[in-house]
């Protein structure tokens, strides 16, 4: 990295001689011959929000497991407020120092908020849980940290945003003032993200320190004061966010110069006016959307965006047959599809990358070959029974085509990084050679290089004359689109041709216009 950044790091270190909240010093962790962390150091100062970024497989998860006392480093030390970390067996001492709010919530949905806050440490009287005291203490805790949820509410009935705040309150109740947030915005829409960021800033002013892990680099600039980059299990740079422009941050993450390399649709030749329509959606209505109509031509990429609550995901899932619309029609090459019928959608040429790869896109205990060939097993043998050799040959073909980093087609999917798992989901969607490809949040939770690889598939499929619907809130995903439809409160509210300005599209997603007379 540049000398200017090195100077900024030195200045930051020399100007902050107070004890860091947490510090990892030359930490190394190996699993056999594989280095998960190699001589990594990080220093997080009191009251800051410090970003930890890097591609999938860079070592972030291993570092978090060491900072939370779930694993012991082979070499190196961890210190809290200048003091050595407690022994791994002393879980109470770790809870007093650090907590992690994971992307997949650890809240028990069938319990109340109060029960979740005091789980395994409920106040008791005469050997029986003192429910009144627990609810009173829960209310006091929520009020102290200004978290507006009812203590007797069922946790499963809360929004994702509220559940995250309850997890933060639970961590703070142990005495921890250092909170690790793992992809905290992955399931939130624009307004929820703004509220979460305001709450983080308020907690920072009250002495809480955050380690913020996100693949959304814009969020790093919005909420964080410092950033540490890991790459290939090594520490690359730590610097003030203000000293590391986006292009340099991506360079540090990837080891390559330049920003995200995706095909911008604004540079394409327009489609011919008489190009055939592949996908026609006519007056589609469902639980959270109404009267949605649009068409996608062969060789066209159309984006569908909006807030999480806009209905965009439900529309996409209806097209793929994952859920049934109440009214309206979906046609592929002029043939109407039955509602809520995945086999029919597949048979008529629709391939889909679903929103949740873990629950809808993959069987984590099976191999790459088995996952990739799942939708075409019937083509490999009688009664849908395929020989391992045929499955593995197809799996290897997809590994080569999509650049999946794995030991081979028999590699179990659970052992892949998030980016490579998403490539396997893409492989399964492409296996049927679909005429229409529906991609729902295709790059969510993956690193920069995996994003490039996945979005390059969009351009390749488009060149083959297939229709692509990209359903996403990520601006980089939408740059691949010839036009972008914006949904607001269940309806299509605006359309933007390629070449749109970020601020215009974001304003439309949030229901405002920057150009009103």
TrEMBL record:
Keywords: ATP-binding, Cell inner membrane, Cell membrane, Membrane, Nucleotide-binding, Repeat, Sugar transport, Transport. Transmembrane segments: none annotated. The keyword Cell cycle does not apply. Residues 22-257, 271-514 form the ABC transporter domain. GO terms for molecular function: ATP binding; ATP hydrolysis activity. PANTHER family: CARBOHYDRATE TRANSPORT ATP-BINDING PROTEIN MG119-RELATED (PTHR43790), GALACTOFURANOSE TRANSPORTER ATP-BINDING PROTEIN YTFR (PTHR43790:SF9). This is ABC transporter related. It comes from Paraburkholderia graminis (strain ATCC 700544 / DSM 17151 / LMG 18924 / NCIMB 13744 / C4D1M).
């Amino acid at each position: 990295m540049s000398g200017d950044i090195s100077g900024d790091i030195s200045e930051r270190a020399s100007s902050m001689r107070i004890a860091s909240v947490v510090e990892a010093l030359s930490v190394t962790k190996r699993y056999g011959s594989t280095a998960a962390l190699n001589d990594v150091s990080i220093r997080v100062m009191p009251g800051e929000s410090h970003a930890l970024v890097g591609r999938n497989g860079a070592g972030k998860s291993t570092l978090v497991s060491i900072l939370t006392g779930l694993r012991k480093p082979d070499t190196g030390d961890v210190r809290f407020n200048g003091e050595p970390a407690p022994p791994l067996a002393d879980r109470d001492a770790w809870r007093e120092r650090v907590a992690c709010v994971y992307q997949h919530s650890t809240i028990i949905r069938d319990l109340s908020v109060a029960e979740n806050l005091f789980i395994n440490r409920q106040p008791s009287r005469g050997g029986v849980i003192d429910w009144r005291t627990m609810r009173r203490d829960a209310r006091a805790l929520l009020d102290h940290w200004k978290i507006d949820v009812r203590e007797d509410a069922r946790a499963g009935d809360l929004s994702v945003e509220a559940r995250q705040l309850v997890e933060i309150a639970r961590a703070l109740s142990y005495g921890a003032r250092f909170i690790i947030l793992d992809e905290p915005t992955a399931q939130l829409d624009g307004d929820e993200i703004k509220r979460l960021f305001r709450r983080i800033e308020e907690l920072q002013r009250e002495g809480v320190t955050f380690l913020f892990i996100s693949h959304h680099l814009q969020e790093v600039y919005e909420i964080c004061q410092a950033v540490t980059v890991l790459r290939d299990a090594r520490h690359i740079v730590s610097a003030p966010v203000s000293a590391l422009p986006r292009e340099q941050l991506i360079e540090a993450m990837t080891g390559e110069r330049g920003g995200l390399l995706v095909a911008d649709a604004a540079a394409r030749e327009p489609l011919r006016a008489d190009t055939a329509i592949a996908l026609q959606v006519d007056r589609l209505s469902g639980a959270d959307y109404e009267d949605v109509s649009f068409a996608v031509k062969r060789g066209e990429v159309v984006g569908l965006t909006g807030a999480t609550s806009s209905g965009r995901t439900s529309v996409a899932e209806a097209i793929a047959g994952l859920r049934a619309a109440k009214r309206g029609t979906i046609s592929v090459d002029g043939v109407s599809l039955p509602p809520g019928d995945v086999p029919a959608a597949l048979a008529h040429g629709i391939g889909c990358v679903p929103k949740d790869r873990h629950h809808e896109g993959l069987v984590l205990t099976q191999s790459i070959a088995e996952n990739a060939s799942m939708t075409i097993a019937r083509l490999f043998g009688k009664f849908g029974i395929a020989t391992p050799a045929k499955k593995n040959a197809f799996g290897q073909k997809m590994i080569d085509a999509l650049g999946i980093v794995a030991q081979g087609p028999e590699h179990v999917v659970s052992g892949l990084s998030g980016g490579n798992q998403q490539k396997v989901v893409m492989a399964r969607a492409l296996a049927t050679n679909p005429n229409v490809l529906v991609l729902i949040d295709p790059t969510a939770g993956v690193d920069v290089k995996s994003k490039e690889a996945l979005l390059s598939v969009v351009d390749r499929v488009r060149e083959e004359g297939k229709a692509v619907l990209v359903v996403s809130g990520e601006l980089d995903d939408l740059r691949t689109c010839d036009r972008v439809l914006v949904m607001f409160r269940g309806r299509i509210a605006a359309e933007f041709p390629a070449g749109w300005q970020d601020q215009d599209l974001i304003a439309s997603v949030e229901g405002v216009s920057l150009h009103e007379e």
